[in-house]
Amino acid sequence: MSIVIDAVSKRFGQFAALNDVSLEARPGEFLALLGPSGSGKTTLLRMIAGLDFPDSGHVLFDGADMTGTPAAERQIGFVFQNYALFRHMTVADNIAFGLTVRARRDRPAKADIRARVAELLDLIQLPDLGHRYPAQLSGGQRQRVALARALAVEPRLLLLDEPFGALDAKVRKDLRRWLRELHDRLGLTSVFVTHDQEEALELADRVVIMNRGVIEQIGTPREVYDMPATPFVSEFVGETNRIPVTVADGRVLHHGQALDVSPKALANGPAELHFRPHEALLGDDAPGALPIVVGAVHKRGGTWRVEARVDDIAVEIDTSGPLPERGARAGLRFDDVQIFPAL
Length: 343
Ligand SMILES: Nc1ncnc2c1ncn2[C@@H]1O[C@H](COP(=O)(O)OP(=O)(O)OP(=O)(O)O)[C@@H](O)[C@H]1O
Description:
The protein is α+β, with helices and mostly antiparallel strands.
């Protein structure tokens, strides 16, 4: 199923939680909504779910306008971080819940519900735990049961709000791989809210980066990492070094000295150079290079991480080449670099 969010805005009193947000999820796509706390991710998810309604704009599923349709009629599966299982019900009864509460005419026969629950227990790889109570499960197992409960009603769309937020790093990593496989196998369209960039970049086909109620960029994990559209995305996704410069008549100046850097199409005025540690080439302090003073050096994975300073600004560079001495003057060059107008 495809989802279209068309110019959706939502206010809470004077506060604009979503401001003219538009995006599309293609059928079978896994979208991550990524952004800092309060950026509007959950509000947007709730509009898609039908748990809340926009002040203006539209929500379409497969082209049909669902803007005012309540959640119960949207055929959606939800998994929330704090969407606790019913403690007094067994795992099997929890999974069956969405089917057993249906009106009699839509409710499957008891034997069919049992069969469906057994199928879902297999799917979440907990085939023998149907008789247990939630308190007898680990956190990761509970979230898998929550997912099975969401899938029981055969949703067309799966919405997940920080489903693994409360779990430890290792379980989280395992579960997210498993979730991605499940998404592919079942042919779902999924929207996943997270503020963990690693999770978003690893899981999603495309990442929607949100900030203060607007979308800063929508792109593949590679696009948002390698080609950040805004300074916010550059800072929020991955590590970034930022150096103030000036654009003047097609040149990029640092303390009046021209750098070998393309100003792209920027107008004259103050600007900011953004580069990731692996994007700088460490060399000598020749004209055109950004001058640095080398600090500590330490091993990081297969490369060296060099800490350095540009004036009093700390920068970090990854290199596998010859290592400069601490205190040495050196210079940085760039194959490709992001440059944004100063805010
Ligand atoms: N019912 C509400 N009434 C008033 N303000 C609200 C309401 N729901 C959300 N907000 C505000 O809207 C903003 C966006 O909230 P939202 O929950 O969408 O953010 P989020 O990006 O999901 O954050 P988090 O990562 O912390 O969950 C926040 O500033 C929040 O305080």
